[in-house]
Amino acid sequence: MRKKNNKVSRLERILEIPEELSSNQPKVTILGFEQLLIENHKGILEYQDYFIRLNTYIGIININGFNLKLDEMTNEDILIKGKIDSIDFENTQET
Question: Cα Rg for the chain, rounded, in angstroms?
């Protein structure tokens, strides 16, 4: 089993595949204080114009702000716009 995992990681390194594409790790991109792109999410847990909670494969992402809206959304990516005050993470993975 280990050899298979090592082969995949070697192949990924050779092909230079970004880790966020080959894993379920969320990728958070902040554009100023007014746009937030989150890739590899699992769904919306809570949505208000001042608070958004997103589920990911490794935990929950909380976004706090004002006039928050879901601008674009796919099964894996979500773009949030509005006045973003803070972002925090809740780790739900067992270590």
Answer: 16
Q: Which residues contact 25 (CB under 8 A, 6 or more apart)?
A: 19, 40, 57, 58
**Residue range 42-78, pLDDT digits in tens:** 999 999 999 999 999 889 999 999 999 999 999 889 9
pTM: 0.74
- Secondary element (H or E) of residue 55: strand 51-56
Q: Which of 68, 89, 84 is nearest to 32 (CA)?
A: 84
Count of structural domains within the chain: 1
Q: Which amino acid is at 95?
A: T
Whether 85 is covered by a domain: the verdict is yes
